[in-house]
Amino acid sequence: SLSVRGVRAEVLLHALEDKGIYVSAGSACSTNHPGLSGTLKAIGLPEDLLESTIRLSMSHETTKQELDMAVAALSEIVPVLRRFTRR
């Protein structure tokens, strides 16, 4: 899981999707139960971060190139999205 303070998870999810990177906004077992992650709530993650957390899934087949692409996309997208976030 990755929390990006000041950027709602759904907004980040769609921005990454536009770059061909697919993540989710919730726990792996919450597909049929939308809402904030019970696990993240249980460990005491603050509400603002609960609403700003995406889940990235990787496997043994995930390449370094794919990871680099995701990091580059996040580095580009997050500052732009934060400029448009209401405070």
Question: What does the model show?
Answer:
The chain has one domain: Aspartate Aminotransferase, domain 1. The protein contains 4 helices and 2 strands; from the N terminus they run E-H-H-H-E-H. The model has no long low-confidence stretch (mean pLDDT 86). The longest helix is centred in the last third of the chain and has 20 residues, at 64-83. The protein is globular, with a radius of gyration of 13 Å. The two termini are 23 Å apart. 44% of the residues lie in helices and 5% in strands. Strands 1-2 form a two-stranded antiparallel sheet. By secondary structure, the protein is mainly alpha-helical.
- Report the C-alpha radius of gyration, rounded: 13 Å
- From the 3D structure, determine the CATH topology: Aspartate Aminotransferase, domain 1
Number of helices: 4
By secondary-structure content and strand pairing, the structural class works out as mainly alpha
Question: Biggest sheet, in brief?
Answer: 2 strands, antiparallel
